Amino acid sequence: MMRPGDQIGDYIVERQIGRGGMSLVYRARHALDGSLVAVKVLRPNLVDHPTAWRRFLSEVDAVRDVAHVNVVRRLGGGLLAPRHPYLVLELLEGVSVASLVGPGRPLLTAAAVQIVKQAAAGLDAVHEAGVIHRDVNPSNIVLAHERPDRARVKIIDFGVAKLLDSIVGLSSENVDLGSPSFRAPEQERESSRVDHRADIYSLAVTAFFLLSSGLMPWGVGPLAALLERKALDPTPNLRALFPALSDDQALVLQAGMARDPMKRWASAGRFAAALAAASGVTDGDADQLAILLALAGHLPGDMANTAPTPTPCP
User: Fold this and answer.
1) From 3.90.1640.30, 3.30.200.20, 3.40.140.10, 3.40.109.30, which CATH number describes the 7-90 domain?
2) Which positions are annotated as active-site residues?
């Protein structure tokens, strides 16, 4: 674990601001120009764990060639010691969209759809770069300040990403890849063969979560029961779960969640555009995001590099 004042490459650690199962994240300042960044470091106890080490490096590769305003920027990286990698990312000011909804805390439809549209734009760029995120969920989508009067969606955490044109060999082991409630059914069967449509499925579940104040299409409960329902039951009737949805919204969402990947939307952008049309949301509603961030009580200067770490699934 790094302490304030420790140096990671060209950066001086200020404090720890996040943690996950594989890594620790620090706010750090460049030793010369003072610029602030987030530095993600593989946990020391996993340095000699081959799967964790390779998966961390897969994240480095996944974000290396993606340059898009809706994807967290990679600024550099290196090794603290042999087999102890770190990744330097832009430092985001904002909150995860998971924290914006819940019982009694509904999102305006325009704000929810704008979040989905911007996340979809980022995902399209990721897919065009030959990467599948594999863990799209509300905790990995951040609503961040771009300037005091503008907020922007950023996709973060590519820790289980897969490069489409390489065989990384990470999914052949008996490990849990992605957040079960949001991931596509095919990720449970043959995780090594998923394509970009798995991310579209996860984005559709995320969209329903945002529109419905935190409901899940497949419900909640023990992991084994959840996976069985997703594998065997038809796609839930979303209007029955959340009657405030229109018929058109439900059709768009259910197509995004189709069990057969071939029946899903061809791209994240097409899914988001159809959802916006079904919801009557226009580009002029983008200002809703800055208002939403202000209402969430998050003001510029309160730094956060990443979403809160979700509770691990059993």
Assistant:
1) 3.30.200.20
2) 135
